[in-house]
Specification:
The chain is built from 13 helices and twelve strands. It is of the alpha/beta class and 389 residues long. It has two domains: 247 residues, Type I PLP-dependent aspartate aminotransferase-like (Major domain) (Aspartate Aminotransferase, domain 2), CATH 3.40.640.10; 116 residues, Alpha-Beta Complex (Aspartate Aminotransferase, domain 1). Strands 1-9-8-5-4-2-3 form a seven-stranded mixed sheet, sandwiched between helices. The chain has a three-stranded antiparallel sheet with strand order 10-11-12. The protein has a two-stranded antiparallel ribbon with strand order 6-7.
Length: 389
């Protein structure tokens, strides 16, 4: 049956395309330039962070966070706690850059880091950093986590790639970590086609992010910081714009993507409100029958899909078959337990945890996007409940 309800729908609509066409007819510069700077500034004002660096994907944003932290010289060691539930590119940079990753069990409420297990890892390993994923836009237990951060003195990397618009006790997700990553991929809270952002309040880390995004040069830094590097390294000023101070990448996006993003930020309040409303509708209909993510009442989820757990793998198969027959797209819950994937097991062996394994074997997604109406959600829920019964 042809799909009627997709997991993801494009947030770039006809009005956005028409606006983009009008702008393109002014024959602007399309590669990274002043529009990127405008987008970064507008995003920073919306989020409430001082420095934001636009790049070509949320995965690249995670890559930049790990490498900037490594090159900062501020880590007490290379040990990093990583989540069992998330996405591969929340963990892969730790492996690629020679960190010593230690995997953490998933929290039974938010599906983020299990704080009891995290503290045991902090006591045992004293890691220099912790990677937190705000799983599927459901805010984690940030007060307790920030107490652990203060007690054990680690850097916090906050992956908010699928959590734009979520709030913890009135504070936006993505404002807790020393650095936070965001994704603007198709189907996420809003889209720049492809794109990502790293935001921070730390100027030193912000300067490193700017250099690492673009080859390791200093051209994107403020003039004072650029001049200081020229003096310190005794660089011939003629060559200064093309001197590489760090072994960087080319992870830039373009002004075309940034122009789309500027308009998407204006739509974000309405998009987030629709996703929150859909999330709560799903929770009311299915939360009594299935195990679902939950956050405290003072926080607000803003999910890109609605996640839930079946009783077992057999029930999940029955539900997935019924959804497929009804034209409802579904998939496993994120990537399940990353500790059971070959990229991890062939290096470190299986990282098996009771709750993360349950997510892996019984979890699945339902669509949540702004195009859904209450009647659509009821039809999807009716299909799930009928299959489960």
């Amino acid at each position: 049956m042809a799909l009627r309800y997709h997991l993801a729908e494009d947030t770039i609509d006809r009005a956005d395309i028409d606006r983009l066409i009008r702008w393109l007819k002014t024959y602007p510069r399309l590669t990274k330039g002043k529009v990127t700077l405008e987008f970064e500034a507008k995003w920073g004002r919306w989020l409430g962070r001082r420095r934001s660096v636009f790049c070509n994907s949320g995965s690249s944003a995670n890559l930049l966070m790990f490498y900037a932290l490594l090159l900062s010289g501020r880590l007490k060691n290379r040990k990093v706690v990583v989540p069992s539930v998330g996405w591969v590119t929340s963990v892969a940079p730790a492996i690629q850059f020679g960190f010593e990753p230690v995997m953490c069990e998933a929290d039974p409420d938010t599906f983020g880091l299990d704080l009891a297990h995290l503290e045991s890892l902090l006591k045992r390993h004293r890691p220099g950093a912790v990677m937190l994923v705000q799983v599927l836009g459901v805010p984690h237990k940030m007060e307790e986590l920030m107490r652990l951060k203060k007690r054990y003195g680690f850097f916090l990397l906050e992956d908010a790639c699928a959590a734009v618009g979520a709030e913890y006790r009135g504070r936006k997700v993505g404002t807790f970590g020393d650095m936070a990553s965001f994704s603007y991929y198709f189907g996420h809270q809003f889209s720049t086609i492809e794109g990502g952002m790293v935001s921070t309040d730390d100027k030193r880390l912000g300067d490193l992010l700017l250099m690492l995004r673009s080859h390791g040069w200093s051209k994107d830094l403020d003039r004072g910081r650029h001049a200081a590097l020229v003096r310190r390294h005794r660089v011939d000023d003629f060559h200064a714009p093309f001197v590489f101070y760090e072994p960087g990448f080319n992870l830039r996006s373009t002004d075309l993507n940034a122009y789309i993003g500027i308009g998407q930020i204006d739509k974000l309040p309405a998009i987030a409100a629709a996703r929150r409303g859909n999330h709560e509708h799903f929770r009311r209909r299915l939360g009594g029958r299935f195990y679902t993510q939950r956050c405290e009442s003072r926080s607000r989820a803003c999910s890109i899909s609605f996640g839930l757990l079946a009783e077992d793998a057999r029930e999940r198969r029955a539900i997935v078959s019924a959804l497929d027959a009804a034209g409802v797209e579904t998939r496993i819950f994120s990537a399940g337990n990353l500790g059971l994937h070959p990229f991890w097991t062939k290096r470190y062996g299986k990282a098996s945890f009771p709750f993360a394994d349950r997510i892996h074997h019984t979890g699945f997604f339902l669509p949540n996007n702004p195009s859904l109406r209450p009647g659509d959600i009821d039809k999807i829920c009716d299909t799930v409940l009928a299959a489960a019964s």
